[in-house]
Amino acid sequence: MKRIKLGLVTKLLIAIILGIIFGQLDFLPDFIIQIPVTISSLFSSVLSFIIPLMIIGFVVVGIADLTQGAGKLLGLTTVLAYASTLIAGMIAYFVAVNLFPLFIDASLSKAVVGDQPSLEPLFSIPIEPMLDVTSAIVFSFMFGICISWLKGQGKGETMYNFFSEFSLIISKLLNSFIIPGLPFFIFGNFVNLSYTGSVFSILSIFWKVFAIVIGLQLILVSLFFVIAGLYAKKNPFTMIKNQIPGYVTAIGTQSSAATIPVNLEVAKKNGVSAQIREFVIPLCATIHLLGSIVTVTSCVTAVLLIYNMPVHFGMMAGFIAMLGVAMIAAPGAPGGGIMSALPFMTMVGIDPTGVLGNLLITLYLTQDSFGTAANISGDNAIAVIVDKVYYKHILKKSN
Fold it and tell me: Quick one: where is this thing mainly located (predicted)?
């Protein structure tokens, strides 16, 4: 009999359903219900420890792989990717603060808090990360650029090999422990939400949030293709049609990295030269988070509104600007966007290790596929723009 292999999204949905059911079993003593809550808490601590290492493992090698003399291309692509991410985050904030209050009111906010306090884990193990996320990002960029420069001098193989093998170790950890453990993490979180009585109120809000988020992602991706098409004098509707296989692949794999081969073929159909597409597509798979930042910004804004916390523009603008940098390693694993953003949740008054932090992780993971699909789709719009700029300005000047 052939064994049925379930995808990650299916496993997460099953974990949510089972968690809701388990948390409603009133006849069970609290310490039994606390077991999955404890497992989820421990898993969260390990995730926090691994995130900075994940950033170093993926970003150093990604930058070090850049070819010699690619400084201008790196700068241009990075600026476009960050600008795209920043604009998407700002638009998501304005959409959220204007639309979400239509279905998030004071009475619903009280229902979301729950009838009783959430369960605490039976025990916890303090696992402090070796580096914070900001330090890991700065370290990765400095070493990646320097190793790329050394390779141009015919040196640096030892350092490059070290970080390449380090990235393989991180990938092994992600594939063998983190990704398989995500359903158990989700299960524990939903057990707690179900126990407090807040889960149904939360779900009644967030299906509407996600409908708006996915619609906004599609609109923004289409808009960026229109901008790229107008600048490069290419048909944006043809490019959007070409992107469909990449979008569907990203939904299925939930990984920007796994979608790179398909995205390269899309870029080829869009007329992007081999030199540019082989440079921009893998790089943007790491640094361009259009879809992810829309999701994180929207979910954070929704949670702040639910719990009657401030959502003023000055606070959120700083948070979104930092997210554009902090989420660089997000495509390394499913849910990487929210994991990378967690250390900066204190900027908006959310405790990343508390109930709200776990709630955000849980909600983000359930729709991560669509954010990833928007990320990689936007990569091809950037590739079209970079290709035009390179041949129209950079190459001509160098000749």
Answer: membrane
Q: Is 25 helix (H, G, I), strand (E, B) or coil?
A: coil
Query: Would you tell me which CATH number, out of the four given (1.10.10, 1.10.3860, 3.40.50, 2.60.40), belongs to the domain 8-398?
Result: 1.10.3860
Residue type, 127: I
| Alpha carbon distance 48, 45 (integer Å) | 5
Q: What number of residues does the chain have? A: 399
What are the structure tokens assigned to 369, written together? Answer: 């596929």
Q: Which residue has the higher pLDDT, 176 or 222?
A: 222
Measuring CA to CA, how many Å separate 273 from each of 88, 94, 384? 27, 37, 9
Q: What is the 3-state secondary structure (H, E, C) of 183-222?
A: HHHHHHHHHHHHHHCCHHHHHHHHHHHHHHHHHHHHHHHH
Tokens standing for 92? 């998501």
Render pLDDT for 179-217 as a digit per residue (tens, 0 to 9).
Answer: 788 788 878 888 887 887 777 777 777 788 889 999 999
Q: Could you report the per-residue pLDDT of 333-376, keeping only the tens digit for each?
A: 566 677 777 777 888 888 776 667 777 877 787 777 788 889 88
Distance CA 389, CA 383 (A): 10
Helix or strand or coil: residue 108?
helix
How far from 50 is each of 7, 43, 270, CA to CA, in Å?
23, 11, 37
**Region for 358 from its dihedrals, namely left if φ exceeds 0, alpha if ψ lies in -120 to 50, beta otherwise:** alpha
Q: Which residues contact 198 (CB under 8 A, 6 or more apart)?
A: 111, 112, 113, 114
What is the C-alpha to C-alpha distance for residues 174 and 376, in angstroms, rounded to an integer? 20
The domain ranges of the chain are 8-398
Please name the residue that has the structure tokens 């988070």: 289
CA dist., res. 295 & res. 215, Å (int):
11
Helical pair 30-64 and 355-365, crossing angle rounded to 10 deg: 60
CA atoms within 13 A on the CB side of 389: 16
